[in-house]
């Protein structure tokens, strides 16, 4: 029996396993596919909420803590695995922001560098941005990470750790209740046990918790994205306009996203979304119109009623915990939300007040 049994091998589950193993504990991680191949792989990798001034203070606290972790984590994983997660801190340009005064007020309150810049600055930083913009909002500290490489590096690191047992292509079907405790999890490969059980199943977390009579208000929200194959430095940094964004990679590829669709667990792509994404991306960077669209995919975000994740103990049981419901900010909040839960599991002083994220807030 492991000290900790984690269900869900996305970035949240893998970072939880990494921290617990670093602390000297035996961990079993159960994932229904290959680790990191759901929402963690499908997102864009921006290490900030898209419009951070629209979020509540608890989200801002977690986001601020996470942003400081990614440079160190990226370097660590590169050294340990040889896989570069490609963390880039080249800033973000916001075009056509209607709530500029609110954004600047938020930045002053949070101590974040965000400023209004003119067109000369904008086109010096991003020469291929859509013409005719009078200026932009500029956040120089924002970073991005190449999330498929991040999850590949995390998976490789966990695979090399003696204290971690990865159980991939194993579907968890039921939590096994024994009085006030969870004895283990029934899976497609038989029962698996752990002293503590942690559900990190993203959009699928609610289905598993329901087998123990726990109601979790998490639902899947589909997002579609496309990938352009462009020349290096056609796009130099993240550019955001009207809720859509383009994200450059070091090899010239450019992600464009994303849609928001209430379609249940449907992960199919469609031409309507593809056209909409293409039009948004080529409006932001017109030269993308001459670039090949190399890939089009969809992922499922775990949405919650108030946009806040659920992190912490499930009060009905002595040894059941949850870390799910991060919606569009799973990658953004992964380092901080996993650290917050591990702090609680190991009896450490938590990095932030855990109260706003508890399941029983509803």
Question: What's a quick, concise take on this entry?
Answer:
By secondary structure, the protein is of the alpha/beta class.
Poorly predicted ranges: none
Note the main sheet. 8 strands, mixed
Secondary-structure element series = EHEHHHEHEHEHEEEEHEEEEHEEEH
From the alpha carbons, calculate the radius of gyration and give it in angstroms.
20 Å
Strand portion: 25-35%
What is the count of β-strands? 16
Q: What is the count of helical runs?
A: 10
Global morphology: globular
Please tell me the overall pLDDT. Answer: 96
Helix content: 25-40%
- Find the structural class using helix and strand composition: alpha/beta
Give the N-terminus to C-terminus distance in angstroms: 33 Å
